[in-house]
Amino acid sequence: xxxxxxxxxxxxxxxxxxxxxxxxxxxxxxxxxxxxxxxxxxxxxxxxxxxxxxxxxxxxxxxxxxxxxxxxxxxxxxxxxxxx
Length: 84
Prior knowledge:
This protein is mainly α and 84 residues long. 71% of the residues lie in helices and 0% in strands. It has two domains: 2-35; 46-83. The chain is elongated. The mean pLDDT is 82.
């Protein structure tokens, strides 16, 4: 986890330069104390991204939505039902 955690924190640090270095150090310390020697798993939250893209798609048909999202037509139909 050491290398993975360092990479994650570095990415976040570069994305949020307004956050003080002390805060990043405290965050890393807390994570290591509570989760040290464990592999980190971060879910991708695809469903949320898909629903956000679906909102922008408007009333497109399932084939076009499937193409936009890179999913099957059946999955695009399920997403459309969730939106309704």
